[in-house]
Amino acid sequence: MLGFTRYVTRTGPAKATFVGGLRKARERRSGFNPHGQLVKALKADIAFRTGGSYLSGVVDLVKERWKPLYGTVSAGAKTYLTSLGDPEQVGLAQTRDALASVGPLVVKINPHFGLRYEDGRREAVRLHFDEAPPTAEATTAMLHLMARHMDQILPNADPVLVDLRRGEVHRLDPSAKPADIETWLAGEAAAFTAMWSTTAA
Predict the structure, then answer these.
(1) How many degrees, rounded to 5, is the angle at CA 37 between CA 57 and CA 135?
(2) With contact defined as beta carbons under 8 Å apart, do 80 and 160 qualify?
(3) Does pLDDT of 199 surpass 60?
């Protein structure tokens, strides 16, 4: 999902360049995730209601090269944690990954975690770590795909995208038309598939 939603934000030749890079990374089996420990720390603070102590401590646990990144992202993560309100009123919920058919493309939908509030609300949360905020296109694509498969991911939950560096929460635009988004994504997926095949030739 991350690769596809990053693809839809690009225009012109940058799309083909991006797809070529993805294909090379797949062939090299590269793709180390530097954010894994931060996600665990955020989930621990939610689960154990520790108010950000895990997020504070994780900066000292990572290798020196990752400390600047973790220092920046953990600050935003604490802002997000505070925005959840009373720690006693929210806890983690188990999510499941889903496979989405987007035109000719199969996209894996994989939120980072789920939330369950005391008032019965549920949220499936995907985190955005990039330096730049998520674009409108990426946000729309990600939230739409999560919403479309929420029965598998976390029934009766709302999809949420969290811009972790800034601690900002993005939700579905209620005025958006799902049918229009589907048409747009199907076209993007067809172009993505064609470019992927071209880079393989």
Answers:
(1) 110
(2) no
(3) no
